Amino acid sequence: MTKSPVKGLGAIVMAAGPGKRMRSKLAKVLHRVAGRPMVLYAVELAERLAGEGVVVVVGYQGKQVKAAIEADYAANPRLGGDRGSAHREKGLTAHVTNRASQPPPILIAEQPEQLGTGHAAMQARAVFARARSGPAATYVILNGDTPLLTEATVRDLIRLHETEKAAVTLLTANLRDPAGYGRVVRSRPGGKDERDGQVIRIVEDPDATAAEAELHEVNVGTYVVDGPFLFEVLDKLRPQNAQKEYYLTDIVALAVERGLRVSAMATREADEGLGINTRRQLAEVERVLRRQICARWMENGVTLRDPATTSIDADVEIGQDTVLYPHVALEGRTKIGEDCLVRSHTRIADSLLGHRVVVQDSCVIREARLEDDTMVGPFAHLRPGAVIRRTAKVGNFVEMKKAELGEGSKANHLSYLGDARIGKGVNIGAGTITCNYDGTRKHETVIEDEVFVGSDTQLIAPITVGRGAVIAAGSTLTDDVPADALAIARAEQVNRPGWAARRRALPGAEGRDGLRVTGLRAGALRPAKARHVSQKAGAPMPKPRKAAVAKKRAGREG
Ligand code: UD1
Ligand code: CA
What does each C-alpha distance from 325 to 313, 329, 338, 432 come to in angstroms? Predict the structure, then answer.
């Protein structure tokens, strides 16, 4: 169920840092978690909490971060807040990527120099001042690198902030390994006074004393802050610390100093507070999220033969009673219907599968569409623009690109079908190749309904094969084929009776195994000229072995 945004709430997502500890050319917040740039988790959460009052602070690779947010929004406009509902209404045949894209209702603040989280939050002030909604009464501030954070938890945090009438309310987590995080320092923990155990400040990891470093309660980087207090106190921050940065976390001590209330709440599950600073943390968060996603689909009626090795991206949708075998990867915006079967070692990315689709082992399927009751694989490669119409079948070692295989048609073995439109009830023989590329440009192959393409056929595009035509196996077609015609385009066969036997009889021809031929010279086995002619052409029989010759002659003469 989707809840409506909180009235009077503004949200700030901090996503400007480079993420040095990732040791990457890519800004940290653009690294993907379960297939989505990490920043999108925070942005989307912010949107659900604050509606149109969201400011994302960007800086390092800011253009790319902004583009990632826009791309996500374009692919997935928030229709009444329910992600992907439009898709479900239209059914699986309507792909979602071509929607008219409106700019997201998200405001961007630039932080050209990354001087710390306090400095980042400060950049949002001017944007809120200019915003239609104006400054907010309360702000929720989110780090861009904490994708496991849930909406329910942050809503609890906001409620706590309100009931406690706090100036600052922060989310904490109790981590077994708190290294790298800001530690939550409380006054006289375990003391008897009512004011004992209150949060008094946050100390960052590089600034922590040995005793503080022992604390396991960490700051998650999620804050609810009173509006007027926030933008006033941010001006008071000073970069006097180990990192010479403006720490947002210092607002806690500043509130305490003024006698204002600071509240704190711990996450129910420690995992929820995991932040990503390093590749190891990236892998850890990825693992947790994937487990959650698998659990969700199992709850929705999908069978996972081995959830531990099944990888399902966050935006994937799967219908009831579909079965996924071990080592299946479903990526991007893939949507799979009901009662499908996906066997091991198959990767399906950004593709649409109807109902009762069977994908055998070891297939790669990208930006393809498989309609109801289709079968693919094993070892099939469906590249962007492959469309498999109802009940059609694609077999092993078949590659397709920008190619449509019509209803009930089959391409069962060893083929390349590119830039092709293939009609209904067509049989594509083993080893068929659409020669779509002339070295400069791509050309189209059209194969109309009910055509039979014999094995090992090359179709040199552009070319059209008319309805009901038959292509003889081994043909290389350069010209269109009229409807219902037989096309044969190959050299005629030559049979040389006895040739093999004569070769075997040559002195020194037999190898150790009786098969290998050594020392043969070209021409040694060539029969007389006249005998080159095919029997089909009505030529005389070529000369067979001696005994047989005598016998034949006798017969003929007799
Ligand atoms: C921060 C907190 C720390 C907390 C941890 C939780 C501070 C000072 N420390 O530390 O107490 O335990 O998160 O994960 O806030 N960013 C900017 N501009 C900047 C610097 C950072 O936008 O100038 C953004 C980053 O892109 C990131 C977020 O702020 O999304 C947090 O920054 P990061 O450097 O990861 O902070 P931590 O050291 O993890
Ligand atoms: Ca961090």
Answer: 16, 10, 15, 30
Q: Say yes or no: CB of residue 62 within 6 Å of ligand 1.
A: no
- Backbone phi, then psi, for 354, in 5-degree steps? -80, -150
Q: Which of 57, 111, 117 to mutate to test the pocket of ligand 1 (most atoms within 8 A of CB)?
A: 117
Q: State how beta strands 410-422 and 381-382 pair.
A: unpaired
Whether residue 204 has its Cβ less than 6 Å from ligand 1: yes
For ligand 1, atom 8, name the residue with the nearest CA. Answer: 247
Write the pLDDT tens digit of every residue in 509-556. Answer: 665 455 544 445 545 555 545 444 444 444 344 444 455 444 444 444
pLDDT tens string 185-230: 999 777 777 777 899 999 999 999 999 999 999 999 999 999 999 9
Which residues make Cβ contacts (< 8 Å) with residue 89, sequence separation at least 6?
Answer: none
Determine the distance separating the centroid of ligand 2 and the alpha carbon of 24, expressed in angstroms: 15
Instruction: Enumerate domains of the chain plus CATH numbers.
Output: 9-273 (3.90.550.10), 298-491 (2.160.10.10)
Alpha helices (H) along 51-144: 62-75, 85-90, 117-130
Query: In the numeric block, which tokens belong to residue 193?
Result: 């006074």
Pocket test for ligand 1, best of 33, 45, 65, 143 (most atoms within 8 A of CB): 143
- H/E stretch holding 375 reads strand 375-376
The token duo for 310 is 């099944």
Q: What share of the chain is helix, strand, coil (3-state, %, to 5)?
A: 25, 25, 50
User: 10 has which bridge partners?
Assistant: 139
User: pTM of the entire structure?
Assistant: 0.87
